[in-house]
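Working notes for the structural subgroup meeting. M.R. asked for a predicted model of this chain before we commit to crystallization trials. I am recording the input and output together here so anyone reviewing the notebook later can reproduce the run.

Input as submitted:
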Amino acid sequence: MSDARQLLGIKGASETTNIWKLRLQLMKPITWVPLLWGVICGAAASGNFHWNFESVLASISCMTMSGPLLAGYTQTINDYYDREIDAINEPNRPIPSGAIPLIQVKLQIWLLLISGLGVAYGLDIWAGHQTPSVFLLALGGSFVSFIYSAPPLKLKQNGWLGNYALGASYIALPWWAGQALFGQLTWITAFLTLAYSLAGLGIAIINDFKSVEGDRELGLNSLPVIFGIKNASFISAGMIDIFQLLMVGVLILIGQHLASIILILLIIPQITFQDAWLLRDPLKFDVKYQASAQPFLILGMLVTALAIGHSNLVSIL
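Returned structure, recorded in token form:
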């Protein structure tokens, strides 16, 4: 179990000297899941995905770009700039423990970034884009990842702004990439996914619970530091639920009534798990909560995406 936590990049992992396991731990594979799903949602929302070999291969390439490569880049660069905080919160992490040299971490950051941007540009060529939209999205997302972690901006120093940037990176950006790859990304869909990303802000707060001690000591104003762990857990749950319920309203507005009912049915067990795990002890039950509640959130995203893909959203709104 501890070895699995190590490979997934979860707190409480066992230590290792295997360089490839260390590199994988820096990339935190458990964080790739929402991005992989976001690409699927974007492809569904395009209304133009076809089940043929080329399209499936393109979608897998887009998921590889969003998850292992660029999310891996994001997590590695975050660990690089958070090494002082991790020395307090998680001293057994690869960098503060000294298990991997900083020069190798820097090399990994550049390799993941360049590979991710290269795949993005290749996807634009495959899709025949005159404007390399997937590449520009990947470049913009990579820049946000950099300023989220790196000084002087270091967006994560601001609890609200940093968590929203993280939420948008996990929901909106991969959705946009999938939709732009197979169809046309509209301003209306972009706005709706940015609104949906406020639910992602709630998810991002959960990641701050485990580092509250180091954040407080080093002056990072995460929401658990500002409001306290208990209040921050209510903010997290509220952001997730409120903005999903707003999406229910959007689905009703565009005439997708069945989808709105399905989304409500997915929100109900999510609220149940929030009460069971998140609101009781987010420090102790954060992994259990994410494992039990997050599937309902991502399934709700797919329901919303499919409904958008089957509606003429531009003409309705």
